[in-house]
């Protein structure tokens, strides 16, 4: 054994690489795949395309877009530094790859040279000689070295791909977290907008309730309330449908995630069980092989010692028998010359004793030979068992190689699916940024419209107060004038017309504007009531068109509304204008028309805001679906990463098992060959001993 191991040439294995070279060989994936900051600058064309035609909002949006499109010098400097660092890292990566390729080429050339040299040595050596056996072993070592180099190359490629995929998965997780945060921010903004819309609806409701106090505009208020109820019902239905859709989406999402998690858990459990069972089987097989090798070596040593002892004993017995035979020959020669009778009797006795000794020795030899033959058969059985185990180990090795190929195919499939997932992730991020821009524009529009509405309400309230004060002043002046300057027609006009607008107008003013001066209002009302009573007792009531201080003069400068124009153009308008009740209730009708116009405008704004809310809810649902899809894709990526890690660990274990199996096979083959040679030597020695004993 020592001679064989000493004469065996060293296999051309490459020296092991240290940790620094491994770190240099590994590709730098993080720097090459750094995500650039998302460009979310809005161009003026895009802002004008998404924004509704609102002339007051366009300059502010253009200014914000131009301010966002400016690039900061520090950002440009950092961008250039990052580009230079990436270029440097890519150059280092190419150098390391070239170095790896050159080392692998050297390994391949060395292995091929060793294989050729081994083949030449096998061809040149004689059949059955030890040189040929050594050459065949060297050839096997060279082939194993080639296979080792190929496996090492595959392992390097797998490590590079696994590291690249882990970096990409990390980047995608980060981008998904950003997308999720943006989606949550959009949902918060949407909830704020919904709250504001509800507040606007509450304001509209309060305005409608204030308008309901007017008896003359009850039909329009009823229509508006019906429309509002219908719209509120539709809004409630839409909200209920939205809540149900959200519940269904959340339930489907939770169900899908739970099913996916259950599947992956069962799959990981099965893979872990298979891995543990394979490890246990490998450990048991290795332990059994070690025990058998130890037993075989111990039994072989015992047999060798026993055979040496038997050989020494047999040689001693042979020498003793030869010495006795020589002494007997000498005695026989001496006895031939002396007395024949006594000598013959002695010789016969000695021959009998020798025959008995020979019979005992032959019986002992037969027992020893039978025991040796039984041991030889036992060793042959053990050799057959070792051969069977070797076939089993080779079969398991083939199965492990097939599993490795399957894992490589799965890895290639995962690599092929990775660009698609990256593309989908980029599209989702772009969609999220687009939704964010739309939400910002809508927020600006909503703020501007609310500000305009508040300004209009304040302006209307201010105008109403001013005109009301003017009307009070006019009515107070008309009440202070002496009664003698008034004609019966004028006083009748004042009295007949004063009773109609007073109560509705006072009710309208008290319901809409309770914050006005109460004392002044009561004074004006009492004065008007006094005029009314005086006029009614003086002259009988007749319709008249003559007036000097008619309250309708207050509304001559009021711009007509679309409702008032349509009402004036109708055939019924002429009779309404001429009738006493319409002329008397002129301020209330005008106020009701103005308020109804404001209500219609608010209703149109509410409908527009409702449509906008519906559009935002649809966009929110779409973004939620996209986020759910992205989360599912990220779960798949995490599963692929875990599976790759498991496959990498399994690959390392299989490579280690392969290496240890090859070493065990080499040692076992050497031991079997040595045992066979020892058995042949023992058989030859026993045959020689048997021949010598038979001849003697």
If you had to describe this structure to a student in words, what would you say it looks like?
The protein is rod-shaped and about 200 Å long. The protein is mostly helical. 87% of the residues lie in helices and 0% in strands. The chain starts with a helix and ends with a helix. The protein has helices at 2-7, 19-25, 29-32, 44-50, 58-68, 73-124, 130-211, 218-337, 340-480, 488-512, 518-538, 562-569, 572-578, 580-584, 586-695.
Mean pLDDT across residues: 68
Number of helices: 15
Strand content: under 5%
* Poorly predicted spans: 1-71, 482-586
Rounded to the nearest angstrom, the distance between the terminal CA atoms is: 36 Å
Instruction: Please tell me what the overall shape is.
Output: rod-shaped
Q: Encode the helix/strand succession as letters.
A: HHHHHHHHHHHHHHH
**What's the number of extended β-strand segments?**
0
Structural class: mainly alpha
Q: Biggest sheet: strands, sense, closure?
A: none
Q: Helix coverage percent of residues? A: over 70%
Rg over alpha carbons: 56 Å
Properties at a glance:
mainly alpha; rod-shaped; 696 residues; 15 helices; disordered N terminus
In short:
Residues 579-693 form the TATA element modulatory factor 1 TATA binding domain. This is TATA element modulatory factor. This protein is mostly helical and 696 residues long.
């Amino acid at each position: 054994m020592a001679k064989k191991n000493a004469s065996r040439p060293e296999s051309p294995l490459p020296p092991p690489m240290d940790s620094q070279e491994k770190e240099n060989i590994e590709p730098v994936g993080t720097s090459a795949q750094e995500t650039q900051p998302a460009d979310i600058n809005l161009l003026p064309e895009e802002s004008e395309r998404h924004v509704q035609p609102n002339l007051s909002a366009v300059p502010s949006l253009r200014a914000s877009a131009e301010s966002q499109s400016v690039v900061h010098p520090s950002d440009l400097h950092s961008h250039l530094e990052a580009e230079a660092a990436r270029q440097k890292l890519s150059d280092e990566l190419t150098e390391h790859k070239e170095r790896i390729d050159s080392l692998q080429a050297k390994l391949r050339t060395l292995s091929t040279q060793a294989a050729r040299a081994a083949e030449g040595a096998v061809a040149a050596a004689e059949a059955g000689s030890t040189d040929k056996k050594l050459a065949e072993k060297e050839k096997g070592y060279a082939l194993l070295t080639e296979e080792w180099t190929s496996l090492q190359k595959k392992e390097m490629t797998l490590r590079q791909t696994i590291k690249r995929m882990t970096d990409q998965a990390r980047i995608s997780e980060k981008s998904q977290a950003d997308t999720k945060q943006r989606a949550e921010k959009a949902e918060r903004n949407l909830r704020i907008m919904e709250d504001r819309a509800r507040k606007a609806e509450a304001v509209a409701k309060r305005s409608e309730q204030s308008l309901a106090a007017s008896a003359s505009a009850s039909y329009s208020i009823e229509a508006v309330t019906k429309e509002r109820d219908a719209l509120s019902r539709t809004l409630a239905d839409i909200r209920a449908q939205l809540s149900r859709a959200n519940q269904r989406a959340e339930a489907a999402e939770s169900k899908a995630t739970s099913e996916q998690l259950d599947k992956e858990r069962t799959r990981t459990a099965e893979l872990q069980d298979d891995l543990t069972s394979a490890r246990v089987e490998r450990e048991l097989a290795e332990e059994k092989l070690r025990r058998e090798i130890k037993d075989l070596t111990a039994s072989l040593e015992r047999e060798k010692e026993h055979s040496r002892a038997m050989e020494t004993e047999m040689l001693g017995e042979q020498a003793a028998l030869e010495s006795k035979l020589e002494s007997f020959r000498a005695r026989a020669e001496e006895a031939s010359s002396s007395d024949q009778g006594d000598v013959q009797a002695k010789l016969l006795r000695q021959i009998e004793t020798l025959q008995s000794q020979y019979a005992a020795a032959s019986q002992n030899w037969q027992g020893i030979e039978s025991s040796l033959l039984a041991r030889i058969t036992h060793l042959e059985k053990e050799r057959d068992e070792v051969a069977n185990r070797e076939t089993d180990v080779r079969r398991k090795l083939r199965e492990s190689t097939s599993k490795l190929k399957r894992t490589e195919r799965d890895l290639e499939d995962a690599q092929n699916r990775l660009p698609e997932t990256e593309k989908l992730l980029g599209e989702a991020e772009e969609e999220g940024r687009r939704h964010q821009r739309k939400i910002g524009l809508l927020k600006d529009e909503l703020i501007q419209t609310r500000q305009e509405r508040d300004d209009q309400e304040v302006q209307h309230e201010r105008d109403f107060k001013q005109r009301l004060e003017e009307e009070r002043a006019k009515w107070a002046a008309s009440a202070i004038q002496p009664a003698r300057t008034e004609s019966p027609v004028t006083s009748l006009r004042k009295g007949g017309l004063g009773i109609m607008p007073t109560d509705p107008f006072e009710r309208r003013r008290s319901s809409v504007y309770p914050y006005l001066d109460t004392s002044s209002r009561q004074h004006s009302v009492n004065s008007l009531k006094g005029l009314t009573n005086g006029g009614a007792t003086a002259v009988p009531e007749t319709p008249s068109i003559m007036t000097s201080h008619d309250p309708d003069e207050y509304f001559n400068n009021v711009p007509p509304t679309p409702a008032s124009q349509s009402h004036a153009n109708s055939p019924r308008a002429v009779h309404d204008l001429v009738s006493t009740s319409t002329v008397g209730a002129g301020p209330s009708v005008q106020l009701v028309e103005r308020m109804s116009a404001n209500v219609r405008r608010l209703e149109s704004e509410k409908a527009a805001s409702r449509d906008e809310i519906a559009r935002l809810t649809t966009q929110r649902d779409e973004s939620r679906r996209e986020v759910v899809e992205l989360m599912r894709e990220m779960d798949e990526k995490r599963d692929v990463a875990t599976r790759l890690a498991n496959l990498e660990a399994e690959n390392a274990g299989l490579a280690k098992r392969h290496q240890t199996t090859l070493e065990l096979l080499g040692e076992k083959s050497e031991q079997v060959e040595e045992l066979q040679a020892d058995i042949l030597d023992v058989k030859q020695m026993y045959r020689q001993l048997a021949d010598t004993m038979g001849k003697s």
